[in-house]
User: What shape does this take?
Amino acid sequence: MVMTGPEGRAYHRDTAVVVQDLFRRAERSVLVAGYAFFQGKEVFADLGRRIEELPDLHVRLFRNVARRPEDIGSDREIVSGFVQKFKAHNWPEGCRLPSSTTTPVP
Assistant: This one.
């Protein structure tokens, strides 16, 4: 488990370094949960390569997909739009996408 938060007196390492190392060494499954992703193409580059190297690697991403007041589409349409934007702006090109399921939260 890797968590980010305020720096304290406890030993800590740079989150990006730890996450990238874990992605490079993943063998069976990876679960990534977050409220937002920043610099996704960089962050997920090693994970994307690993997915291509190990076709049986099971990767799941959990991310908040907020419904804005101006969103008039169905939950499915909003999530589909999010996935397309995620793929274009956060996922390494040419790499298989992680598993996809959606669970709307009221």
Observations:
- The radius of gyration is 15 Å.
